[in-house]
Amino acid sequence: MSNSANAGQVDYFAMFGLQPSFLIDSKALAATYRELAKDVHPDRFASESAAQQREAVEHAARLNDAYQTLKSPTQRALYLLRQQAELPEETTIQDGEFLFQQMEWREQLETLQDQADFAAIDSFVRELKQARQAIDIAFAECVHDSEQRIQAERLARRMQFLDKMFYEVRQLEERLDD
């Protein structure tokens, strides 16, 4: 993902007529995307010159990248942080409190794999969703405050970890369904 602070980069929020914000209306975003996608669909440029066709494909790709980024709360959070300043690509979390929580969740997931208990998995997912909701709220409150930049980065990294946990739970559910 490129850094939008670079000259010549298109602001993903501006593409959709939005103010840069973590809290957005995802249904409105999807509706705007569908409208914009119709206008730039490469098939509409089939009778145009090769250069115009290429430009249409590039525009459609940029629009799709913007939509995929803004649609995902985690990617949107990271994008907002990158708009403000360079975001270190470090994946280690210098966050002792959350590191302990990660270990607990990993142990729970291992136990769930052994138990194959769908009710317990549902309960675990609810716990993860509550944690995610709290993280999202905290991020929205601090993302635009330069004094809280480190905390915003920490919360975005927590989002990334939870995305991974949700993915691993889905994998577990699929294995148990087989």
UniProtKB/TrEMBL annotation:
The keyword Chaperone applies. The keyword Transport does not apply. Residues 11-83 form the J domain. It holds the Pfam family DnaJ. Co-chaperone involved in the maturation of iron-sulfur cluster-containing proteins. Seems to help targeting proteins to be folded toward HscA. Belongs to the HscB family. This is Co-chaperone protein HscB homolog. It comes from Denitrificimonas halotolerans. The lineage of its organism: Bacteria, Pseudomonadati, Pseudomonadota, Gammaproteobacteria, Pseudomonadales.
